[in-house]
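INFO batch 0412 | record 1 of 1 | parsing
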Amino acid sequence: MKRIVLLISFVAAVALCAGAQVFIDFHDMPIATTPTLMPDLYPSGMNMLWDSFYYVTPGMWSEAGPGFWVDPATQHNSVAFFGGPMCALSVPCSGSIKESQIVMTPRNRTFIPVGMIASSGWADNEVTVLAYNNSRLVGKLVWKLTTERQRFYFPAAWNVTQLVFTPGFINANTTNPKPGSMVIYDFAIMAH
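INFO prediction complete | emitting tokens
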């Protein structure tokens, strides 16, 4: 019995030292009828910088594609996204989520990405995910996105300062390919 209590105490202590899980779902973003640049340092109290990401309320934006799901119970929840018409044609674009180093302590701040629910915005495409820790490549994933929401997980060993998402082109064999996209409904991280 003492061993079980000791094991539970040890696991709880490790979890507390590792940091708290933060769930980001954009529910408190203001209603946006057109794409609006994602504010840095969102959510409040976090030091996340959102490069090239926009947010929008899917049920309110007439140009939202089939990958912008509208929850009938909460029609006015916002989502984060990048790509699609927000990118120049035939030019690769990407979105980046990184830890701001403005509040730097003696060490650079990191986070552990856990998972996210995502889709493509307008048409199926692949997204390459690159993970960095202070400009050093930690790992790479390739996700096949459809216009249906899917849950994706990150490797447990990733301790990063930045995630870069780059979608592939749609209709890559044509002379005028269109940039892909990614819509994020929620994002879970372990914050230090």
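INFO post-check: Confidence is low (pLDDT under 50) at residues 1-17.
INFO record closed
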